[in-house]
Design goal:
The structure is a single chain. This protein is of the alpha+beta class. The protein has one domain. It is 38% helix and 15% strand. It contains two helices and five strands. It is globular. The structure holds zinc ion. The site of zinc ion has 8 residues, from loops.
Length: 82
């Protein structure tokens, strides 16, 4: 197994976790947008410099990229029931 195989295996595990959580009604924040002076996406509106907003359902605002990355692993958010 070479490095790229190991990286792909890690990504597969992470993707499986995201999908498993999502099926159970939880958001692991796999995608987000960051603050921009002039927002491009509606999800960027209202963000302050450095902040990041999840765009995959929960819309949680994180203080910065590091907080968002930590939350991906440690802090899934319950999605509203539809
Ligand atoms: Zn989220």
């Amino acid at each position: 197994m070479n490095d790229s195989d190991i990286q792909q295996a890690d990504l597969d595990v992470a993707g499986d976790r995201i999908h498993r959580l999502r099926r159970s009604g939880w958001c692991a924040h796999p995608r987000a947008v960051s603050y921009l002076d002039v927002p491009v996406y509606v999800e960027q509106q209202g963000l302050r410099p450095g902040q990041v907003r999840c765009t995959t359902g929960c819309r949680t605002v994180f203080a910065d990229d590091a907080a968002w990355i930590r939350a991906q692993n440690d802090d899934p958010v319950r999605l509203p029931s539809s």
